């Protein structure tokens, strides 16, 4: 009986094994792709070794668990990983290894921002486990030194995927410019292999995807209970090429949801309008605002003599205060929705003469390097005629940025066909792991943001082919220019600019090649280059920049140098749209190749005022001699709004713990 029982058990086990083999496709031997197909990624060790030989393909391949780990480091010399492909044997459809990943369990959507149909369609939230990254090619696909990004001549992207339980999947593809990416969604059943298919020809016709310049693709998943996932045999195919497995397709159009924007840009109405107090002022001694600083976060704005707005850093927390009596007393407003003032939040921008202020924080959307997600949270304070009110919830400025950023410049157009339009420019790490400048505009007072052309990249702003330091991005500033905008930045090529006019960007130009900072002194240290710009009239631009003393003036055709005796990179403000002032507090040095976060410098806070004939008056010493001024990561704690009331400019500066502020009157109007 014992031998008969043993035989029965053996036969039963053999039958079970046979049934499993029949239910699953056999592992295919490595070899050339089927006719009409081209293998992009099969996750085999030899294949990965051959595809990581690009001159800046910064990836590492290690043996692990009878397979390999293939990963990209987060930063140079650091152990953290941007992503890891765990390539393991077992369930495969090609070769010996497949990508093994885990999804979830994912939490239900709990957005802390005002979403839009476009965000809902193209940008799943990755923060705090709402969606899981199954596969990411950031920093590898376009930098491998091979032709992995050359998809021309093919019609379909196919990948084999198996989930142990039901799974919702996003597959996204992008070329060198397109924003948002082309996104397809699939509901994958559990327990068997299936092929997901993206129609590339539809993406070309409906979204202008450039198949010759594919930069990245990625796969995301969401599962309430969590599941293990396998991905294999990522390939291109021509129309009519048979697939060995069942195929899932997203048959929806790939066109983007239509944005609901006003016919003309919105200008906030003063719903509780009060007569402004703009009587002539005399310069007074600075007043004090205790227990606060102005770097790395902080600004000052004014509507009139009495109503002031002040953004400050209070013990590492962003705070906003308002005065209705000229700075004698202050009331605390709702704090902005920000996180990480050090390298995840911009200091804030005053955008118009009413004192409206915008600030952006990517810390709230941070989900690691190299992924797209609702990341740039935008907060706004709007003057209503009596004071400022905070708009809630925050909105999303941008999802394309691939890492945290601490730089953004905002301005509102004051005149012309697009009066009221908001412009934003910021430095970022992009899809190629390059450093560049992006810009968008808004016609609905900053609720939704649009780009000029196929993507938000400012042409000519990519500094380098590849960035080892992902924090060393440019620090752009923007100013109105005709019916569009001018954007300025400094990098290894010098002081640069580009202009958007008539709905088109021009070619980037070099203003001064000698004013070239080293944005990344080391792999872990970055230079946040200071500077300022304003526009008087349509195209008369005044500009300050690091390493250029005084002020540069663009007269519509050439750059002129004014006030060379002043220090470089000062703060410009234009009172009433015509009276120009320059504020300085010493120079900012190129940071040394070592970590230097917070220092102080000893300098006088000076104000230069420009006469109507173009002559600069002798400076006012606002601080009463040299004083201690904070400098946080090269951000000087000296602020003034780019556009001030017609009779004065509010100015503030701080040391490590105290803010001082004053009102600088405009020069008297010359009598005939």
Name the shape in a single word: elongated
Question: What is the share of helical residues?
Answer: under 10%
CATH C-level class of the largest domain is Mainly Beta
- What is the average per-residue confidence, as pLDDT, rounded to a whole number? 91
Our Rg estimate from Cα atoms comes to 28 Å
> What fraction of the residues are assigned to beta strands by DSSP?
35-45%
User: Quick one: biggest sheet?
Assistant: 9 strands, mixed
How many domains is the backbone divided into?
2
CATH homologous superfamily classification of the largest domain? Peptidase/esterase 'gauge' domain
CATH topology of the largest domain: Methylamine Dehydrogenase, Chain H
Task: Give the structural class.
Answer: mainly beta
CATH architecture heading of the largest domain: 7 Propeller
First and last CA, distance: 124 Å
Summed up, the helix count is: 4
Total DSSP E strands: 46
Q: Which regions have little confidence, pLDDT < 50, spanning 5+ residues?
A: 1-31
Keywords:
4 helices; 672 residues; five-stranded antiparallel sheet; 6% helix; nine-stranded mixed sheet; disordered N terminus; 2 domains; Methylamine Dehydrogenase, Chain H; single chain; mainly beta; Jelly Rolls
